[in-house]
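User: Please predict the structure of the protein below. I'd like the answer in structure-token form so I can feed it into my own downstream comparison script.

Assistant: Understood. Taking the following sequence of 220 residues as input:
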Amino acid sequence: MKKLIRFGEDVKGYNVPVLNEREIRAAAGILFLATFISWMFILFKENFIPIKYVITLFFTDLIIRVFINPRFSPSLIIGRWIVQDQTPEYVGAPQKKFAWTIGVVLSATMFFHLIILNATSPIAGIFCIICLAFLFFESAFGICLGCKFYPLFFKDKTQYCPGELCDVKQKQDIQKISKEQLFILLVFIIFICLVGYFFNAKFSIKPYDLLGINNAEQNK
């Protein structure tokens, strides 16, 4: 039973249980995509059915991760299958458990509002946006936002962060942002603003059917 209900894996050379960051990022990407698409259904179609399914699955997945074993989490199993040919990147399990516990609280609140009460509220909307942010930063940048709060509640030093983020180190030249790069970024932002100002009316015009496919189908 102890082998079934546990959090993290014992790997030689690591003094705390660890998890594979690569499969975690893959799972986060899957959950982000599902949540984002269901959010778009709400914004553009006022259809809450997809988000109810996603929240139910998301909540169940996190319950399995935190209270049973991450090995049995459906999203992590799919993530493991996707990245199975990649070399594992080990991260400390304690901070991940804390971050996923935050996810349990957020998803439980959304589940209560949308599934149990079948009601909407600013709280559920804000929590959903927070979950999207957590998932996006994890999948896109490998940054665990929930893990950032771990040192505030636990005295133990955070170990084995993705990209050796926990370790104090000097940036290499390839990591440094030069003044020229900052200038280019500023010019690019100004360019986007100018494009929006001068071409917004042009961009607002609905594109016409170049090949006439839609017209042909309507005439049938």
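That's the full token string. Residues 173-203 form one domain.
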